[in-house]
Amino acid sequence: MKIALIACLLAAMPGLSHAQAAAGRKIVMMGTPSGAPPCSACHGTHLEGNMALKVPALAGKPADFIIARLEHYASPEGHNVQMRQVATALTTMERAQVAAYAAGLKPAAK
């Protein structure tokens, strides 16, 4: 429910979406003061992923999918240690911002 609400808000307010994506880019490139590392450290500068490390691409993925995955990693069901640390360091709003930024990127060519 929370995921759908955030996704609807982002879609309904283009100005908010743009602001969210700009804030998301900052998190992707620099991390957060609360301790989330930059997403780009593992997922790549353009969130293209790193198959050698088994890190998936995030560029162009739907925002609601990314938010759902981050919420999963932050929950007791999330068993990826690295992503649990990242997801729990992000607020709900920061997760939405990262998702808005990643969703707006062009997926890497395969």
Report on the structure:
With 110 residues, the chain is mostly helical. It has a single domain, classed as Cytochrome Bc1 Complex, Chain D, domain 2 (Orthogonal Bundle). Helix content is 59%, strand content 0%. The chain contains six helices and no strands. Helix 1 runs antiparallel to helix 4 and helix 4 packs antiparallel against helix 6. It is globular, with a radius of gyration of 13 Å. The N and C termini lie far apart (33 Å).
* Approximate helicity band: 55-70%
**Named CATH topology:** Cytochrome Bc1 Complex, Chain D, domain 2
Number of helices: 6
- Write down how many β-strands occur, each being a DSSP E stretch of 2 or more residues: 0
What is the count of distinct domains?
Answer: 1
Overall body shape: globular
Supply the helix-strand structural class.
mainly alpha
Distance between the termini: 33 Å
Compute the gyration radius: what is it? 13 Å
- CATH homology group: Cytochrome c-like domain
Describe the main β-sheet briefly.
none
Mean of residue pLDDT? 89
Assigned CATH architecture: Orthogonal Bundle
Q: Topology of this structure?
A:
Elements: H1 2-12, H2 14-30, H3 40-43, H4 63-74, H5 81-89, H6 92-103
Task: Please outline what is shown here.
The protein is an all-alpha fold and 110 residues long.
